[in-house]
Amino acid sequence: MEDNWPATAYTTGDYEDEQASVAALDRLLEKADLWYVYPEVRGMIAQPRPEQEDKSVRIDRVLVPMRRLIELGWRHGTIGVEAKRSGVKIGPVIAQAMDYRRSVWRLGDSGTSIWLDWCFVWPMAKQQGPIASVLSQQRIGSLSSSPYHLLYFQAGETTVLDVGWDGEVKLGDGNNGRRAGSR
């Protein structure tokens, strides 16, 4: 890491490569047992920026809530997770997540196409300040794990979902990104 960049400007954890990062994420998702997990989902950017070249995209995981999570009060829809190795600058990853929020995804062989309600970056620490506000409005968040949280989904200062190691599930409000236009 560059000395003049804060630690939050990089992905966190101790994962030497993306494969180790994804494997750790999969173990945590399996333990949480709250989603149907679709690996390496392909999609198409539905709202390309002017002169954007490649419109084909792939996200590491799409999470569709199981009945248990919905019955607990989940109303945040389907989410995507982009995983990186530790120590990666988050700027390009956030740009990638912004593209993913403007994409339509094809789930498996069913032909079902979906839109992601949220996109989270794994493993990324909670962001603060102006970047946190921008991420929240774009419905992009950080996903992390710690000795205190099995899985911790955050967007800016908002907790979207906190899954404890004991299985306790705490839902956050997650109203981010609902306003449009002048603020």
Label this structure with key terms:
183 residues; alpha+beta; ten-stranded mixed beta sheet; 23% helix; 32% strand; globular
Number of helices: 4
Shape: globular
Helix content: 10-25%
Strand content: 25-35%
Taking pLDDT < 50 over at least 5 consecutive residues as the criterion, the unreliable ranges are none
- The structural class is alpha+beta
Q: Averaged pLDDT, please?
A: 89
Topology order in helix (H) and strand (E) letters: HEEHEHEEEHEEEE
Biggest sheet overview: 10 strands, mixed
- Straight-line distance between termini: 35 Å
Strand order of the largest sheet: 5-4-1-2-3-6-7-8-9-10
Structure description:
The protein has 183 residues and is of the alpha+beta class. It has one domain (7-48, 61-171). It is 23% helix and 32% strand. It has helices at 18-32, 67-71, 90-101, 129-138, and strands at 35-45, 56-65, 79-83, 103-107, 112-115, 118-122, 140-144, 151-155, 158-163, 169-171. A hairpin with a 6-residue loop joins strand 7 (140-144) and strand 8 (151-155). The radius of gyration is 16 Å and the shape is globular. It starts with 17 loop residues before the first helix and ends in a 12-residue tail after the last strand.
Topology overview:
Layout: H1 18-32, E1 35-45, E2 56-65, H2 67-71, E3 79-83, H3 90-101, E4 103-107, E5 112-115, E6 118-122, H4 129-138, E7 140-144, E8 151-155, E9 158-163, E10 169-171
